[in-house]
Amino acid sequence: MCGIAGFCKIGINFLEKEKEWEKILNSMNKAQKHRGPNEEGTFITKHCGLAHVRLSIRDLLNGTQPMTRYFKNKKFTIVYNGEIYNTTSLREELIREGAIFKTTSDTEVILFGHLIFGEEFVKKLNGIFSYAIWDETKKELLIFRDRIGVKPLFYTLSGGFLVFSSEIKGLFEFPGVKKRLDNEGLCEIFGLGPAKTPGKGVFKDVFEVLPGHFLKINMNMIKQVQYWKLESRPHKDSLKETVEKTEFLIKDAVKKQLVSDIPVCTFLSGGVDSSLVSSIASLELKKSGKQLNTFSFDFSENDKFFQSNSFQPSQDRPWVEKMVEFLKTNHTYLECDSEDLVNNLFEVVKARDLPCMADVESSLLYFCSKVSRKNKVALTGECADEIFGGYPWFYDEKMFKANTFPWSLNLSHRKILLSDDFLNKINLDEYVQQRYCETIAKTPRLEGENKEQTRRRELAFLNLNWFMITLLDRMDRTSMHCGLEARVPFADHRILEYVFNVPWNFKCCGGVVKGLLRKAGEKYLPEEVLYRKKSPYPKTYNPKYEKMLKDLMLEVISNNNSPICNFLDKKKVEKFLKTPADYKTPWYGQLMAGPQMIAYMLQINYWLLKYGIEIV
């Protein structure tokens, strides 16, 4: 894993002031050094500059970037962030076409692939990636992002320059790129956050390359091209065939993602998703005499303060212990206390460049920092719930029928601390509804489906494009901020394409939530773990944490220079802080309730202050 950045303008010669432009590239690298602590490099040609920082995972000695290769009359240079899991078969195909490789890195495979097959080669890749290729012959820059959007890629247009970066912070190292927020950005933060509209970077004039798309920049144009999209097709396999194919795809995805020149670990919560990934990984490693490292996460004193509810019915620790005993892994139990949780609330804003999932995200940052001391590559169970229908909104009637984002049903919870003047200035309800309706309209339809089937397809599409992307962003930024590469086997596009078209009665076969996934995992897990009721990522219930948040918020609103005060009603905030915290009514997802509202507002205040954001 790595970080990439660069700029392009066809009508300028960067070589005339090469040292000045190289200094900018080095600044962009420095801003993202956490993504690639092992190496860094830059490349400048007449119309393009590229920058790269590297976390060494594959071909540790020879995978240095930017990388340039020649083929016949073509010369291409690449900067790349990601992992390609079908590298071996692609390499063999390219050798037959005449490629001569100098390394064993997947970077060189992508580079030769484009030299030989052109931009269509991206369709052959199985993996997670963002990369930029400069075509010296055509004087053209191509910037690609993976199908699902696992790896980030942002860009802006400034003074005729196309500027791009893995993370938003890299863009701000380019002269003239400003940190500004307009009404649309405010609606994103207060109406949709911690999610954001696909393609938007929240900051004014900052965008992201959409998943399954690439940018093409040359003398004549700058355009975004779609190379992949989800399609609706009739599902013709029987239940037995569906279970068998699902099992194969999951097992194959995990096996492929174990490829690494350094040891791989897994996150293990004791739930079906991470347990299934860990079980397959453990079995594969045992074939070569290796023991899998696993890690679980919890909060100090949760055994004392944990509050069971419909979203989080049980603690993870007993289930982790069952799986560790079953798999015989080398396991590490990690805990986060209230002080670390609060301290990382602000560090994680720097990691994401935006307010985010409050303590849900700050705790993951803390845990990733601990894991990275022992392992640099981790497999996770992310995305299974979005793909296989594990969330309440897939089966709860009220959520299922809601004409809005089901993970954020009631905007009144979001407005509870905001001033009336601010709410009258921006129409959050209209903005949120418009974003929702846009996504619903893009849902790929299938002729002949009834009203319920159509709605299920809409919900699946909505989840994949919004909720899953938010969690993938969380996973990427928290892990890469710590120099840890997190892989997500369930986000293999083959799994997504197949399961998207599986009918609901198969997905919840036997009337069990994620029944298809559980049946596909029968060979790998004890029955009690396989059919454990879903319990999401843990959060703290420690009243000490809640008090720390309230004290910080009181401090913030007592200072009239606090930027968040421009949007809050102090009397509403004071009343909210005196009310017992609500842990059972999330305003986003399943975990973000009363304490997380306070934490989110603290993050917004820090973000506005730290980044020096101008409201326009």
Explain this structure.
The two termini are 36 Å apart. The chain folds into three domains: 225 residues, Aminohydrolase, N-terminal nucleophile (Ntn) domain (Glutamine Phosphoribosylpyrophosphate, subunit 1, domain 1, 4-Layer Sandwich), CATH 3.60.20.10; 229 residues, Rossmann fold, CATH 3.40.50.620; 73 residues, no CATH class. Helix 2 crosses helix 3, helix 6 packs across helix 7 and helix 10 packs across helix 11. The strands form four sheets. The protein has a six-stranded antiparallel β-sheet. Strand 2 and strand 3 form a beta hairpin. It is built from 24 helices and 19 strands. The chain is an alpha/beta fold and 616 residues long. The radius of gyration is 24 Å and the shape is globular.
CATH structural architecture of the largest domain:
3-Layer(aba) Sandwich
User: Helical residue percent?
Assistant: 40-55%
Uncertain runs are none
CATH topology of the largest domain: Rossmann fold
Strand order, main sheet: write it out.
2-3-1-9-8-11
Q: What is the assigned CATH homologous superfamily of the largest domain?
A: HUPs
What is the CATH class of the largest domain?
Answer: Alpha Beta
Strand content: 15-25%
Write down the Rg: 24 Å
The profile of the biggest β sheet is: 6 strands, antiparallel
In round numbers, the mean pLDDT is 93
